[in-house]
Amino acid sequence: MNGTVVFQSDFGLLDGAVSSMHGVAHSVSSRLRLYNLTHEIPQFNTWEASYRLIQTMRYWTPSTVFVSVVDPGVGTDRRSVVALTTSNHYVVTPDNGTLTHVAKVLGIAECYEIEEETNRLKGSHYSYTFHGRDLYAYTGARLAAEAITIDKVGRKFPPERLVIHPHLPSTYSNSTINANIDILDTRYGSLWTSCSREMFSRIEVNYGEYVNVRISHHGNVVYENDLKYVKSFNNVNIGVALVYINSLFNVGVAINRGNFAKAYDVGSGQDWLISLKKSIESKSGTA
Predict the structure, then answer these.
(1) Distance between CA 144 and CA 213 in Å, rounded?
(2) Residue 156: HSE in the Cβ half-sphere, 13 Å Cα cutoff
(3) What is the residue-averaged pLDDT of the chain?
(4) At residue 80, does pLDDT exceed 60?
(5) Strand ranges (DSSP E) for the chain?
(6) Alpha-carbon gap, residue 201 to 206, rounded angstroms
(7) Which helix (H) or strand (E) holds 98?
(8) Taking the complete model, does pTM exceed 0.85, yes or no?
């Protein structure tokens, strides 16, 4: 273990919830290095929690422990788990879909259900509404400090039994790519899709050419237009929409110095779909 714990939640920073989780971890070992991924996940949104984990996890050194607490089922019989990824990262979290993108992109090597009676903060058993502090921060810190090993947290179970959100893979058929709008680039309103750079190359669009972008929600088309494929936002005029490859090497859709999601009332998640194909103008060489 490398002694590092990274926290994520939907708690925000207006009160002491996050600080108390840090305090519990620090009480386990003052030598731990404690960081925040984000605490601005939309409340109860386990899909976004899943995506934010995979957005950052690959850039942390192996053996880093992630504590992710977006837990609308706190205090119920939902399972609490520690997962070890194939990249040798640890995630301590409720088993409620938060591991969806981690399982898809990195893969889960081992899973253990946390035995709560033996792996929770001493004296905390009188309350069942703050497992982020009493169970997850405590267990994550003990793992990172090597006070316990993963096989000591509880019963091992197959990764196939994890709760995973339905997630349509990006597909290519009839010169068209179909994919999910996985998430929004929160501050700027760009759309981040599940279409990888490798998949996008199948429609053979070069920089400066146009892509037909069609967005649908529950089967209803909410946007369709031909957008220029560019390296960066400033390759089009201010206020113009574009297609680009984002920092995770997937296809993104944005407006230069604008907010695409707000401009066209577009959201993200399993029900937001996007199709991409080379536009007629590009095929004819008039782009």
Answers:
(1) 45
(2) 8
(3) 94
(4) yes
(5) 4-9, 33-38, 65-69, 80-85, 90-94, 108-113, 156-157, 171-173, 176-185, 190-196, 210-217, 220-229, 241-245, 250-255, 269-278
(6) 9
(7) none
(8) yes
Q: Report phi then psi at 189, rounded to 5.
A: 75, 15
* Euclidean distance between CA atoms 81 and 90, whole angstroms: 10
Q: How far apart are CA 188 and CA 58, in angstroms?
A: 23
The per-residue pLDDT for 125 is 80
Contact 276, 211 (CB under 8 A): yes
Secondary structure of residue 221 in the 3-state scheme: strand
36: left (phi over 0), alpha (psi -120 to 50) or beta: beta
Distance from the first to the final alpha carbon of the chain: 53
Residue in 114, 145, 4 with CA at minimum distance from that of residue 64: 4
**Cβ burial, residue 76 (10 Å; 0-12/13-18/19+):** exposed
Beta bridge partners of 157: 111
Residue 81 and residue 269: Cα distance in Å, rounded?
24
Ordered by where they begin, the domains of the chain are 4-161 (3.40.50.10790), 171-284 (2.40.30.90)
